[in-house]
Amino acid sequence: MDIAFLSSAMVTLLKAVPMTLLLFSLSVFFGGLLALVIVTMRVSGNRILSGFAKGYIFVFRGSPLLIQMFLVFYGLGQFGVIRYSFLWPFLREPVVCAVLSLALCTAGYSAEIFRSGIRAVSPKEIEAARAIGMSGFLLVRRIIAPIAFRHALPAYSTEIVLMMKSTALASLVTVWEVTGVAQRLISQTYRTMEVFLCAALIYLVLNFLILQGMALLEHSLSKHRRAAPPSAVKA
Amino acid sequence: MPGVTRLSVRNIRKSFGSHEVLKGISLDAEDGDVISLLGASGSGKSTFLRCINLLETATDGEIFVDGEQIRMVRKNGQSRPESQKQVDHIRSELGMVFQSFNLWSHMTILQNVIEGPVHVLKRPKAECIAEAEALLDKVGIADKRHAYPAHLSGGQQQRAAIARALAMKPKVMLFDEPTSALDPELVGEVLRVMRALAEEGMTMLVVTHEMSFARNVSNRVVFMRQGLVDSSGTPDDMFGSGASPAFRQFIGHFGGEQ
Q1: So where are chain B's domains?
Q2: Would the pLDDT of B146 be above 60?
Q3: Which of B91, B106, B120 has its CB closest to that of A147?
Q4: Residue of A135, A146, A227 with shortest CB distance to B106
Q5: Is residue A235 included in any domain, yes or no?
Q6: Considering A55, B66, B95, B144, which has the largest number of Cβ atoms within 10 A of its Cβ?
Q7: Does B69 contact chain A (CB < 8 Å)?
Q8: Does position A72 have pLDDT exceeding 50, yes or no?
Q9: A233 Cβ under 8 Å from any chain B Cβ
Q10: What pTM value is reported for the model?
Q11: DSSP annotation string for A54-95
Q12: A232 vs B151: CB contact, 8 Å cut-off?
């Protein structure tokens, strides 16, 4: 085993970690916001809004993320409206295209995950909130969203891990994140095995940290489902 | 203030599809009244209670809470409240206690109790916490304030739910079969809390199957049958010689308690 090469490859790849983290955090953030908009439309009860949301979810869950990314990266520039608009300086950047397509895609999945969480909220708890005078946004903010989020969290942490791995696709639209840098290194050294092993190890560590964080969050939000502490049981 | 009408309901009708559940029910509750609503299942008593705070929308009729009428409009032949804001306000003045408690599972008991005062009435949190602790003490579960609903027995949960409703300082308390989901040995602790409330002069409307409560605690008994008020009166009249034949037959099913 060539420790010297492995460590130098690792150093090269680690320099690309900030880009992977940037792609990941921006797309999870914007994708999450968009998912909230989509799921609000989906459960609004308005047929047009709900129909649009269903269509959105179908399109972005039903087609490969790679093709979506290619369409954004290669496709948008073909429209004059976009090519000559104020958006073009942003949209011609590979990083922006990658974040945009990652966010659009995860929004579709997350919206469905959030919807399953909302459906799991007990109608009785909602009724109790209505009965003390809550409605509209207050009811959502105080009762529905906190309960729904707790139900959705396990599925949502899986989606977040998938997003971390999906950032690797950005290498195919010329973003120099970990996978892209790994491929460049391989084309220079022809040492596929070592380089990709290093890359895989980086993703494993990143996802381990994310999963630990999510587990911690889940733990702190599920006190009500655990056995009572001894102090609460007595008398 | 005895003599003040806290709740007035006029000629409430409610249909589910073509099935008319309530066929014109009227009822007045003055300050301090404790009214027991009795009736066989399907007689419409729970639906009637739920119409009062608009968890069900009555098809027809008028409701006044402390003199304020709930404004209704007709749209596409359906009756509905004109203003959600008014509905929220009216509901904040009516405490509701449910058969299955309906506590918010992700909040501690104390959080359940202060939720309404803090977020609906927008009152200072410290004040609400102090009041909530006093209420929890009153219903006998002060030591459970940091526990979650799932960690409590049914009787304790229902007492917490009563404290939650009281925290809103309601003008009228509505109880929808508050002891029906409880194990027999837990019924007493909830009834004791309700009796104490009645003795303090709280205006209460109680849908119940507890004949002893109807007889000994309430000052008026309303017997519903097939969507109508069959008969009503003081417990002495109703359980005495003045009972209607239908009510006599109904309480006959509770033989052991008579």
Answers
A1: 5-253
A2: yes
A3: B106
A4: A146
A5: no
A6: B95
A7: no
A8: yes
A9: yes
A10: 0.86
A11: HHHHHHHHHS-HHHHHHIIIIIGGGSHHHHTSTTHHHHTSHH
A12: yes
**CATH code: domain of residue A102:** 1.10.3720.10
**Nearest-CA distance from B65 to chain A in Å?**
14
pLDDT digit string (tens) for B193-252?
999 999 999 999 999 998 888 998 999 999 999 888 988 889 888 888 778 888 888 888
CATH class, domain B5-253, is alpha beta
User: Structural domain tally of chain A?
Assistant: 1
Residues 6+ apart with CB under 8 A from A45: none
In angstroms, the CA B179 to CA B202 distance is: 19
Q: How much is the pLDDT for A235?
A: 42
**A221 contacts B106? CB cut-off 8 A:** yes
CB-closest option in A136, A147, A223 to B148 = A223
Distance in Å, alpha carbon of B249 to nearest chain A alpha carbon: 34
When CB atoms are compared, the residue of A127, A138, A228 closest to B55 is A127
Residue A93 structural domain: 3-222
Residue A178 covered by a domain? yes
**pLDDT tens-digit series, residues B79-130:** 888 889 999 999 999 999 999 999 999 999 999 999 999 999 999 999 999 9
Q: How many CB atoms lie within 10 A of CB B146?
A: 14
User: Helix, strand, coil: what percent of chain B each, to 5?
Assistant: 40, 25, 35
Within 10 A of B159 (CB to CB), how many other CB atoms are there?
Answer: 29
Q: Is B151–A127 a contact, with Cβ atoms under 8 angstroms apart? A: no
Cβ-based contacts under 8 A for chains A and B? 82
Cα-based distances in Å from A172 to A114, B105, B152: 30, 47, 56
Establish if A105 belongs to a structural domain: yes
Q: Distance from A232 to chain B by nearest Cα, in Å?
A: 6
Residue A233 lies in a domain: no
Residue A133 CB neighbours (<10 A): 23
Q: Taking residues B138-143, report their average pLDDT.
A: 91
Q: H or E segment at A100? A: helix A94-119
